[in-house]
Amino acid sequence: MEQLVVNGGVSLEGEVVTSGAKNSSVAILPAALMAGSPVTIENLPLIDDIITLKELIQFLGAEVQTNGYGSLTVDPQKANSFEAPYELVSKLRASYYFLGSLLTRFKKAIIPLPGGCPLGPRPMDQHIKGFQALGARVEIRHGCIHMEAEQLNGTEIYLDIVSVGATINLMLASVTAQGKTILENVAKEPEIVDIANFLNAMGADIVGAGTDVIKITGVKKLGGTNHMVIPDRIEAGTFILAAASTNSSVLVKEVIPKHLEAVTAKLKELGVDLDVGEDWIHVNGCSCPKPISIKTFPYPGFPTDLQSVIMPIMTKAKGPSMITENVFEARYKHVDELKRMGANILVEGRTAIIEGGESLSGAPVRATDLRAGAGLIIAGLMAKGETIISGVDHIDRGYENIEEKFNKLGAGIKRITEE
Ligand code: EPZ
Questions:
Q1: What percent of the chain has pLDDT over 90?
Q2: Residues near 413 by Cβ (< 8 Å), separated by ≥ 6?
Q3: How many helices (H) and strands (E) does the chain have?
Q4: CB contact at 8 A, 113 and 140
Q5: Which domains does the chain carry?
Q6: Residue nearest to atom 1 of ligand 1 (CA)
Q7: Coil, strand, or helix at residue 56?
Q8: Is 27 in the pocket of ligand 1 (CB under 6 A)?
Q9: Sign of CA dihedral 366, 372, 377, 381
Q10: Ligand 1 touching residue 371 (CB < 6 A)
Q11: Alpha carbon of 329 to ligand 1 centroid (Å)
Q12: Who contacts 23 (Cβ-Cβ below 8 Å, separation ≥6)?
């Protein structure tokens, strides 16, 4: 297995360009199978999840052509299977989007229960409730979700909990259903708007994405299109926080500032000096971070995906900070790793209290999910001495060329193979 070696006491400088949004791309690729002709997708991030999804789409019979950098053309016309293999599906949670897309394409889907980051139970009850409401029979047998429908009929579905995955999956399952589907209490993430725009470009009729009610009027069929994936707000936030945490001057380009409003607002409370442009954010440093309180919420609240990424800078604030993780039940696995580096953090249920005034020291640590890994890279850059991060495969699932991007800013991170 590979490891990242991070030498601390580093300040960063220069500019970094954000890649396409992982959490848009991992839904857009399965959705391409619903088209009646080739679909070209640009600005895909070159991450392991995309490689896995490409293999899955090819396994199902569709043709995938790699164009230029970050550009794929999917020709779904030869897709001939609705059953995805465990060894690929288990690599990422987003493989569950094949449920919605194959149900629309074939009125059948057999997908092993998905893998993905260990953030707590992560049930799929809202996905299944919605598929059943649309007319699908759903059974879980031998670790697989089996779905079948004679006909998908538009209906009203009220999500019990705001779920990004369920919102997207039920959009996919409704686009050619008979009649109108109204999805209520849905997630409003920018990636959902991006996917709805992609589906509408294919000929779907979706209104309301980005609000808590999405209305889908079923159409006869979907055609091909070209789509440019939006920038990844979580990757952008990661580099913005890396600059703030190391008191560095870094320009982050290819950003939609509106997607990061909750983050930049908190950074200003923290005492980060930053300028926001039309499609960029420039961090001028943070010499004396202030203690703050953060509560994660679905968009437009503070993103749960940046919770582990903002925690390191809190260890050097002048006083205790607090984080409340309202989205996932168990998203503090990175705390034990930060404590190995000298952080003083107390976790009680969904709340973490981060004592400030600490200086971190390098140590061997392990990434437990991709965002925890990103937080450990930042902690390593802040720490005195060397930090060796294992579990790099988690990070590679969601960050494109992460050490190359950091090293262009002067980080000096090395990738080695574990003894
Ligand atoms: C998506 O996960 C993202 N993954 C996650 O990003 C992100 O953290 C999360 O949304 C929240 O924004 C992808 O888009 C591939 P949810 P998802 O359904 O869809 C509960 C990353 O780092 N829930 O919005 O799985 C669930 O347990 C990843 O890029 C149910 O109870 O998240 C959680 O507590 C990590 N029943 C809450 O809802 C369901 O049927 C939100 O989950 C579905 C979800």
A1: 93
A2: 4, 5, 6, 7, 377, 403, 406, 407
A3: 14, 23
A4: yes
A5: 2-19+231-417 (3.65.10.10), 22-228 (3.65.10.10)
A6: 164
A7: helix
A8: no
A9: negative
A10: yes
A11: 11
A12: 94, 164, 189, 191, 232, 234
What tokens appear for 208 in the block?
């309301």
* pLDDT tens by residue, 152-194: 999 999 999 999 999 999 999 999 999 999 999 999 999 999 9
88 token code pair: 């690929």
Considering the entire predicted model, what is its pTM?
0.97
Query: Which amino acid would we find at residue 279?
Result: D
Q: Which amino acid is at 250?
A: V
Token readout for 25 is 């791309």
| Distance set, CA 69 to CA 44, 72, 165 (Å) | 8, 9, 27
Average pLDDT for 344-355: 97
Query: Where are the strands (E) in 20-151, listed by range?
Result: 39-42, 63-66, 72-75, 108-112, 137-141, 144-148
Contact 38, 274 (CB under 8 A): no
Which residue owns the Cα nearest ligand 1 atom 31? 123
How many other β-carbons are positioned within 10 Å of the β-carbon of residue 273?
15
- Does residue 117 carry a catalytic annotation? yes
Q: If we measure between CA atoms, which residue out of 373, 129, 128 comes closest to residue 242?
A: 373
Task: Give the residue carrying structure tokens 């991006």.
Answer: 194
Chain centre to alpha carbon of residue 165? 11
Residue of the CA atom closest to atom 18 of ligand 1: 163
Q: Render 330-395 in DSSP notation, one character per residue.
A: S--HHHHHHHHTT--EEEETTEEEE--S---B--EEE-SSHHHHHHHHHHHHHSBSEEEEE-HHHH
DSSP 137-158: EEEEETTEEEEE-S--B--EEE
Whether 225 lines ligand 1, by a CB cut-off of 6 Å, is: no
What is the rounded average pLDDT of the residues 207-218? Answer: 98
CA neighbor of 160 nearest in space, from 178, 184, 189: 184
What letter represents residue 88's amino acid?
Answer: L
3-state SS class at 162: coil
Probe target for ligand 1 pocket from 163, 327, 371, with the most ligand atoms within 8 Å of CB: 163
CB of residue 397 inside a 6 A radius of ligand 1: no
